[in-house]
Amino acid sequence: MAQHKLLFFGNVFGQARQAKSKEDFALLTTQGLIGVAPTASNSGLGFAPPSPFNKFGITYPLQDGAILTKDEISKLKVATDAYNTTIDEIVAANDGKIAFVDARAIMNQLVSGGIRFGNYHMTASFVTGGAFSLDGVHPGARGYALIANKFIEAINQEFGSTLRTVDLSAYRMQYPASL
Question: Is the whole model's pTM more than 0.70, yes or no?
Fold first, then answer.
């Protein structure tokens, strides 16, 4: 085999590793890369790889920016925990002046069983959970209504107001639970 082919295989596959279940997470945007031909700018080599090694996630490894590793997830958790600690400190220092909504608790509830209201059930499940839009990051209409209700409840509790919450069933979800 020619030296340049060995060099190519070494550069492409020599640093690749199998993703680890429950440790590595593919970003939602990664789905748009799978099967797409790498270019000179995103291949990590400085040139577009030749066929048949020109399909991201199939015959060509996904690049680091498409996957969150265990270490990156750990760093995100540390940063998020620090941010939440700062929020807790601000709320504690301003007792009686801030209506606090614990977004992390709401997210944990959506992830671990969901939130029931009337005959409805909302979870964090992608597409069918009802809380998020199809980008998997931003709330959908019903998710925003849930957030609005949580703020209204916090304002009512903290300041003794009587703002009315909205009916979550009046806001559509992206797709029904059974497609």
Answer: yes
